Amino acid sequence: RPFQVAIDGPAASGKSTTAKMVAQRLGFDYIDTGAFYRCVTLAALSKGIDPSNQTQASQISNLAQSSHIGLNTVFSSSPSSLPTTRVFLDKKDVSSEIRTGTVSKHVSAVAAIGPVREAVLQKVRDMGATSTSHEGNSGRAGLVMDGRDIGTVVLPNADLKIFLVADSRVRAERRLQELAKSGSKEEGSDVETVQKDLERRDELDRTREASPLRKADDAVELDTSHLTIEGQVDAIVQEVHR
Ligand code: C5P
After folding, report:
1. Taking CB atoms and a 6 Å cutoff, what residues make up the pocket around ligand 1?
2. I need a labelling partner for 206 at 20 to 30 A (CA). Which of 10, 59, 110, 117 fits?
3. pLDDT category of residue 77 using cuts at 50, 70 and 90
4. Total count of domains within the chain
5. Which segments of 53-132 does DSSP mark as H helices, in order?
6. 6, 151 in Cβ contact below 8 A?
7. What's the ipTM?
8. Cβ neighbours, 10 Å, residue 170
9. Burial class (CB in 10 A: 0-12, 13-18, 19+), 190
10. Residue 186 has what pLDDT?
11. What CATH number has the domain bearing residue 75?
12. What's the 80 CA to ligand 1 centre distance in angstroms?
């Protein structure tokens, strides 16, 4: 089977950027599982459903099952430039819409709904099974997946599991820079607000009943507070080659 790399960690720990660049370096496929929860959240919000209202959980679960979610990652031939992932919800490109503050605010409540997780798990596994057909430039086929429960639930037998951590202030600063670059920075968002939102989201992700955020016993922990993105990528690529 293809070589599997599982990357987990709290919000804005650099998972997607790192995972994408690792995939690019090795010629592996890439799947961002957070995008699935974000799509379900967006679908619910656009139907006027309030995700924080627990009585709406079954409606949101139905949406999770019936929505079609697609990812398309475009890799670059230059190893240092960042690959881009477009996200499609029922064929519509929602790549920037799913990164807005409104979606970020509600996504953890949606991801805490058990049947939503089951629906996403099925979709993510199906995508993983169909995407890894070609050999990467490292001579083997592989897959990099990032999220919160990849090493523990989605790919429990992954060949390499990484758990990224970073100081919440550093993460908030990185998230703001990222939002400014993508043009989706909402008015009035300052570093304190973003940091508080990240911490609140991590707490929800860690304490929920359905597959909470936690480091798999056999995962390698990598603190990225003082690492550059290249440093992070190098460290993981080295682990793959070990
Ligand atoms: O990674 P990202 O910030 O896009 O993920 C958004 C949210 O989706 C997380 O805060 C978490 O609540 C949820 N998530 C999850 N399990 C995953 C990936 C994301 O619960 N595997």
Report:
1. 11, 33-34, 37-38, 107-108, 111, 147-149, 201, 205
2. 59
3. confident
4. 1
5. 57-66, 101-111, 114-131
6. yes
7. 0.94
8. 16
9. exposed
10. 62
11. 3.40.50.300
12. 26
More confident residue, 215 or 101: 215
pLDDT score, position 137:
65
d(CA 149, CA 215): 8
Q: How far is the CA of 111 from the centre of ligand 1 (A)?
A: 7
**Average pLDDT over the chain, rounded to an integer:** 92
Query: H-helix or E-strand containing 147?
Result: strand 142-147
Q: Cβ(8)–Cβ(215) under 8 Å?
A: yes
Closest to 88 in 3D by CA, of 32, 153, 126: 32
Ligand 1 pocket: which of 13, 15, 16, 33 to mutate (most atoms within 8 A of CB)? 33
Is the pLDDT at 139 greater than 80? The verdict is: no
The alpha carbon of 11 and the centre of ligand 1 are apart by a number of angstroms equal to 7
Calculate the alpha carbon distances from 140 to 15, 17, 29, 135, 226 in Å. 23, 22, 11, 5, 31
CA separation for the pair 72, 29 (Å, rounded): 10
Q: Kindly state the average pLDDT of the residues 81-100.
A: 95
pLDDT-derived band of residue 188, with 50, 70 and 90 as boundaries?
A: low
Q: Is it the case that residue 143 has pLDDT exceeding 90? A: yes
Contact 23, 235 (CB under 8 A): no
- List the domain range (segments joined by +) for residue 182: 3-241
**Structural contact between residues 203 and 129, judged by C-beta atoms closer than 8 angstroms:** no
